[in-house]
């Protein structure tokens, strides 16, 4: 099944380069290009791509607002958005993840990681680059909303705490399964349970919650609140 992608970046060379990289990947097709956020939202709504790849800084409507309009809370049939940027420590990236983006990459991430992020977003997963996004989440863990953080609707099990910590470190399901010596299907079950208990829409929101609550390492029963 071909993954249909919309690329939005105000720099023509970058936009063209990203499109060429993606077009060269098997099973990925670029169906549109946008020069700013307003055009990106309009094209996304008309073309209904499987994944939107947005630069975070664009004139008019930036990548954050475009993401919120297409993937934010309350959006009917939200789209998968991946943010790509030059800046590895930028408060706007955190805001974009909160707005519903499924992943974050630097523009020098390389073709392989870019394709992985697109494929992850297309299947409803999220790619959190360990060397970038986790560091960013740590940097902004203490700058979230002033309101009390939401608590799980049910206490997390010890295994869920382990999976939570692994997701916060940016590990994929396969890497988590290998590290914890459990099956891939078991990992998916725990991730789904975490999403339900934390009212999270994706792995990015799970990771954000883990960093904001300081739960980036697995806790034992005696450590839980």
Would you write up a description of this structure?
The chain is of the alpha/beta class and 225 residues long. Helices cover 46% and strands 12% of the residues. It has helices spanning 12-23, 37-47, 63-71, 91-99, 111-122, 133-139, 158-168, 173-180, 184-198, 203-212, and strands spanning 3-8, 28-34, 51-55, 80-85, 103-106. A 5-stranded parallel sheet has the order 2-1-3-4-5, with helices on both faces. Strand 4, helix 4 (91-99) and strand 5 form a beta-alpha-beta unit. Helix 7 (158-168) packs across helix 10.
Largest sheet: 5 strands, parallel
Give the topology string: H per helix, E per strand: EHEHEHEHEHHHHHH
Physical arrangement of strands within the biggest beta sheet? 2-1-3-4-5
The share of residues in helices is: 40-55%
Number of strands: 5
Give the low-pLDDT segments. 220-225
Q: β content, as a range?
A: 5-15%
Radius of gyration: 17 Å
The shape is globular
How many helix segments? 10
- Distance separating the two termini: 45 Å
* Mean pLDDT over the full residue set: 84
Derived from helix and strand composition plus strand pairing, the structural class reads: alpha/beta
Which descriptors apply to this entry?
single chain; 225 residues; alpha/beta; five-stranded parallel sheet; 5 strands
């Amino acid at each position: 099944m071909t993954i249909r992608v919309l690329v939005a970046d105000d720099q023509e060379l970058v936009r063209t380069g990203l499109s060429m990289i993606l077009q060269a990947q098997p099973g990925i097709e670029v169906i549109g290009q946008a020069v700013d956020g307003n055009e990106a939202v309009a094209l996304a709504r008309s073309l209904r791509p499987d994944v939107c790849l947005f630069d975070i800084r664009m004139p008019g409507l930036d990548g954050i607002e475009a993401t919120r309009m297409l993937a934010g809370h309350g959006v009917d049939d939200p789209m998968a958005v991946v943010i790509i940027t030059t800046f590895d420590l930028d408060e706007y990236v955190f805001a974009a993840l909160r707005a519903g983006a499924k992943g974050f990459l630097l523009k020098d991430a390389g073709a392989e990681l870019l394709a992985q992020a697109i494929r992850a977003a297309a299947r409803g997963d999220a790619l959190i680059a360990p060397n970038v996004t986790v560091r960013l989440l740590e940097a902004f863990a203490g700058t979230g909303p002033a309101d009390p953080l939401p608590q799980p609707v049910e206490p997390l099990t010890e295994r869920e705490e382990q999976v939570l910590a692994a997701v916060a470190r940016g590990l994929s399901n396969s890497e988590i399964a290998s590290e914890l010596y459990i099956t891939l299907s078991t990992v998916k079950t725990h991730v789904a349970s975490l999403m339900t208990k934390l009212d999270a829409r994706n792995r990015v929101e799970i990771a954000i919650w883990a960093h904001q609550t300081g739960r980036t390492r697995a806790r034992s029963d005696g450590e839980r609140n």
